[in-house]
Amino acid sequence: MNKKLLRYTVGIAILAIVIPVTLTSMITIEEAVNADNPITKKWVGDFGGIPPLDKVKVSDFKPALEMAMADKLSEIEKIANNTEAPTFENTIAALERSGQMYDRVQTMFGIWSTSMNDEEFQKVETEMAPKLSEFDDKIVQNEKLFSRIEQVYNKRESSNLTPEQQRLVWSDYTYFVSAGAKLKGEDKQKMSKINQELASLFTKFGQNLLADESNGMVVIKSEADLAGCSASMKDGYANAAKERKLDGSWVISNTRSSVQPFLTYAENRALREKVWQMFINRGDNGDEHDNNKVITQILNLRKERAKLLGFKNHAEWRLQNSMAKSPERAMELMMSVWPAAIARVKTEVSDMQAMADKEGAKIKIEPWDYRFYAEKVRKEKYDLDNNEVKEYLQLEKLREGMFWVAGELFNFSFTPLNNIPVYQPDVRVWEVKDKTTGKHIGLWYFDAYARKGKRSGAWMNAYRNQQRMDGSITTIVSNNSNFIQGKPGEPVLISWDDATTLFHEFGHALHGLSSNVTYPSLSGTNVVRDYVEFPSQLLEHWLSTPEVLNKFALHYKTGTPMPKSLVDRIEKASTFNEGFSTTEFLSSALVDMKLHTSDQDNIDPDKFEKETLKALNMPSEIVMRHRTPQFAHIFSSDAYSAGYYSYLWADVITADAFSAFTEAGGPYDKKVAASLNNNIFSVGNTIDPEIGFRNFRGRNAETKALMKERGFPVK
């Protein structure tokens, strides 16, 4: 997909959207816009220009978006009405160069949507979402423009184009066709109406979820109710209470980073259930923020759109240009793993039930017990306590570890910068350089901590894509997390799972930083959905390497490295609880695919979810990682819709790719790392991803490595 035409942030809606701005109204709009609006201005300063994030006001967004859309539409009209015969340069390259103001404005808009989303911004977001969608459709449905693109496409193999240019032509053409460029008459109007309605619904879904996550909490008055929780956890919960002016209390907020540690360690079973119920019912409370009706409407509109475009269902439409190619192939992969996953869950539950019985708990294992008793079993089987592990996992030390890995694999160095404007004081910035030559590579922003108005989870953004169309333009990327801050001056300790996620998102950032292509739409992470998670999931493997653990897994009090005995125990327990984690993820992916291949109208999300999981023999002790009413991946945009399976697809590729290192000189083998960079990380979407993987591995990916990695039977 050409991201110059439709942008999104990883994991969230974006709102690529468009307004019916006429060219004749442009002067009026420009006059209405404050001349000093920082959002529309060209980025200036060092490093090819940096976004003036410290100067943004929410009131600037609407006029900035209106001006930027008018500006881009003017450029599009010039391309479409060019009287010269269509060529790559005057059509495809011209499209790449268009909308630079719009790109800058959308970048700012995306940052505020995910990280600074207060009530004032939500009003702007709600108003502009359908207008932005309409704007997108104005471009896609410009018949003169598409005719020119099609003519270049039909002559791409006989026009002396480079392979990268041919790929860009193919990308633009397939995007326009997929988005409805070939529709005629009333069908075009129907398509635009559907897209506008979807944009509004995506925004509503995201805002409903954010409201539940921001406002939901469990307040604890007695420290006795925190029995089992570590001192660092208590500090984080106390800090969350202080932020809400509830001094003397502790607050479990309605986010994964706050909830999961409590479910793992808190001894108070009634409170675990209360916290669990709060978390799994986000968007599903029958109140003003309930997402079920929103989801029903989204599914109906997606179904209508797919049929309008000539597809059987939404999943077929979304997967046509993916690696999987079809829903059937994606389902085949998922169902090849599912039986082994739920079989493993039975064993895990049996072990946990035995533990509870031995303790005289007189309970049946329920979902709010799973993490708690899994931790007890882990400790008994492997003498491994995650609280013990956590004492060696300091956020800042692990960040340094990520930098070190990037240096070893990609020859990058990271230098902190203290004079770069940011949108929030906790955000920090580093310059990335080539270690050998000192050449500037890009900038890396890090927004590590949770706060009100920030979406939950973790993600990567590209503020600017690398390109060299008209001189070298370097990238600006960011990583975003939701860690809970403790006491001032004390290190933030994170779980092994959180550390894995930290490395995962940094993998996305390295994918963007490694980019070395000509055209921005093919740059960095702008690859097909079921390939984009491959580089990020691959980087997770380096967290557990002895080199990282010995250098950067340092005890927060003593500064001593993680002892080898503990490293060995972590390795021995590496496949522990894999049934839970695989089932938790796969159930979400399967429900996603079932929803988007169903021929039902007016689906009741809760009922559909329940019936689908029953048919799949979902273990009652586990819930989906993302239940349908809170599944932002698939309902806050189209980005991951019918595509959540892509994490498993990427896992297959990842496990096989890491085997290339282990079969060679180890995780830091220079020859394999160079091949990884040359064939995967640096090429963006300039080549078919299957070809890129074969160039790296010498063959197509196989599932054996994944099954072995997860401790499942290998056929």
Please write out the topology.
Elements: H1 26-32, H2 61-80, H3 88-97, H4 100-115, H5 119-140, H6 143-154, H7 163-178, H8 186-215, E1 217-220, H9 231-243, E2 250-253, H10 256-265, H11 269-280, H12 292-308, H13 314-319, H14 327-358, H15 367-382, H16 386-390, H17 395-410, E3 412-417, E4 428-434, E5 440-449, E6 459-464, E7 475-483, H18 496-513, H19 529-539, H20 546-552, H21 564-572, H22 578-595, H23 605-615, H24 632-635, H25 646-662, H26 670-681, H27 689-697, H28 704-709
Helix pairs in contact: 1-2, 2-3, 2-4, 2-5, 2-6, 5-8, 6-7, 8-12, 10-11, 10-15, 14-15, 14-22, 17-18, 18-19, 19-25, 22-23, 26-27
What does this structure look like?
This protein has helices spanning 26-32, 61-80, 88-97, 100-115, 119-140, 143-154, 163-178, 186-215, 231-243, 256-265, 269-280, 292-308, 314-319, 327-358, 367-382, 386-390, 395-410, 496-513, 529-539, 546-552, 564-572, 578-595, 605-615, 632-635, 646-662, 670-681, 689-697, 704-709, and strands at 217-220, 250-253, 412-417, 428-434, 440-449, 459-464, 475-483. Helix 6 packs across helix 7 (163-178), helix 19 (529-539) crosses helix 25 (646-662) and helix 26 packs antiparallel against helix 27 (689-697). Among the domains are: 23-210, Orthogonal Bundle (Neurolysin, domain 3); 217-280, no CATH class. The protein is globular, with a radius of gyration of 25 Å. Strand 4 and strand 5 (440-449) form a beta hairpin. The strands form 2 sheets. It has a 5-stranded mixed sheet with strand order 3-4-5-7-6, sandwiched between helices. Strands 1-2 form a two-stranded antiparallel sheet. It has 715 residues and is an alpha+beta fold. The protein is built from 28 helices and 7 strands.
